[in-house]
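pipeline/complex-builder :: batch 7 item 3
reading input block
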Amino acid sequence: AQNTVIDAGRVAEHNAQQQAALAADYEALGGMLARRGVDIEKLTALAGTFAVAVPSWGVGTGGTRFARFPGRGEPRNVFEKMEDCAVIHQLTRATPAVSLHFPWDRTDDPQALRELAEGYGLGFDAVNSNTFQDQQGQGHSYKYGSLTATAGAVRAQAVAHNIDCIELGKALGSKALTVWVGDGANFPGQHNLRGALERYLDSMRDIYGALPADWLMFIEHKLFEPAFYATTIADWGTSFACATELGPKAKCLVDLGHHAPNTNIEMIVARLAQFGKLGGFHFNDSKYGDDDLDSGSINPFQLFLVFNELADAAQRAKGGDSDFAPAYMLDQSHNVTDPIESLMTSAVEVQRAFVQAALVDRNALRAHQEANDVLQAAQTLKAAYRTDVSAILAMARVRNGGAADPVGCYRAAGYRDGVAERRPAKAGVSGSGIV
Ligand code: LRH
Ligand code: MN
Ligand code: MN
């Protein structure tokens, strides 16, 4: 039997209270969808298959460059982080994997961590390396770059760290390594733009060579920050070129917050899917830059349009490229909310976009596109986007043993009060590792 963090009886009690309202909403929605020729049961079954990984660093309070205001009962190590991740999955049933970040989540006992996770029904998605900070006791500084550093010893240290991450990931059952580097220049002339990318590729070739046969490597691009003049892997074009150069195991990872404002991210998704290089996502939302806000909190239509492209790609893949399975992960930082509540809400919002995209009448859309009926083509997307699928999501959760209303259930269970007592804050401990 699976271990549960929140008493299963409490979840059942919560669902019983919600049952009548949910049944009524579900029936009303089912009737409305039936008139559109859509079987609600199919959508509910599909919703139940959805999964997005939780970032281990998301369960602590992130803070900004200016301050961090710690929350109560923050996890103090990776084992406590897993407990919080288990709550998120128990109530949403949509987050069966965790993405770890090293060395923030380093453990001397990966076997124990794996067993703890398995007990909760959790697995591990991509592991992330970190050469954007110096760690205590490290021989060389990344102040002037890591995989692109001019000093060979610095590059070697960064490569060794990534290979270490692969080793840890292997012990945990991960199947991918995500590499994001902040390397770049703050001033024109600081480094040779082409030379930096050549050194990056040299380093990445060494890491690629250490990947097990069934692993992937995700290259995560980001426009700027911490390098404010020229970031080495700033855009999907550079990411795509590097992934192509490195080989089939290298793919591109799209973090929604890593683009210039107003960038058409769904088109990037379409391009990467077309050329077989869409590796995965870091979902979050933003208004200005890499804000790392909750998914769907600022621009839910964009999230829907991303999933519309994914649905299109999945449909095409059925006929050929059957291994189209990009990794879905959240990457958020919570400053003013309870991280568990934010992560549950985000998982549900991403799942919502997934279900709404499945509602798009693709045959009608194609016909409107062929006929150049622009207005109806746009309205076909809007019809799906405007449909409130909340009852489908809630029903899928309840049927899978989750909570009708994850945040309501979580609050009623008093989990935060419990951990606040069990996990007294230690001075100087950063919950997320982001300092
Ligand atoms: C960089 C990033 C990357 C890191 C994470 C902490 O901005 O998105 O994914 O690993 O934040
Ligand atoms: Mn990211
Ligand atoms: Mn980011």
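note: The chain has one domain: 14-21+48-358+400-422.
queue -> next item
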